[in-house]
Design brief:
Blueprint lengths: L7 H14 L6 E2 H8 L4 H11 L8 E2 L10 H11 L11 H4 L9
Parallel strand pairs: 1-2
The protein binds a DNA duplex (13 and 13 nucleotides) through helix 2, helix 3 and strand 2.
DNA sequence: CTCTTGACGCCGG
DNA sequence: TCCGGCGCCAAGA
């Protein structure tokens, strides 16, 4: 099954795995996810989220400026409020406080 | 191979 | 803060 090189499914699994690992109240930018899994780029991550993000906490993956994806602003805001994600007066996520460092919060 | 299109990112004005 | 421009990565026509 392995074509040798990275299959698209592996990339998809890597992205979804990283997203599931984000603790509640924290977020990652699309580019952060790409760096975390050392694969692809922000555009590619967005592509995966668009097609396979329904089963993971998609609201924890946002733009680098703290805003949610187009069409999902309202739903995302609801989730952010529900799990206590640090928000700015502008309605965007406070990236400075909410950005996940990538390490288990248990420590 | 070239052009266009995305749940993107950074810089300038 | 709002826009426009350019770069980046992958897929489709």
């Amino acid at each position: 099954m392995s074509g040798g090189l990275l299959s698209s499914e592996e990339f998809i699994e890597a992205v979804l795995g990283a997203v599931e690992a984000i603790p509640p109240g924290k977020v990652l930018a699309y580019g952060d996810v790409a760096e975390l899994i050392c694969m692809g780029g922000p555009r590619s991550v967005g592509k995966v989220m668009s097609g396979h993000g329904a089963g993971v906490p998609w609201w924890r993956v946002i733009r680098a400026d703290g805003s949610a994806a187009s069409g999902l602003e309202v739903r995302a805001r609801r989730e952010w409020l529900a799990e206590g994600t640090p928000l700015r007066p502008t309605g965007k996520v406070d990236m400075r406080r909410a950005r996940w460092d990538g390490r288990p919060h248990n420590g």
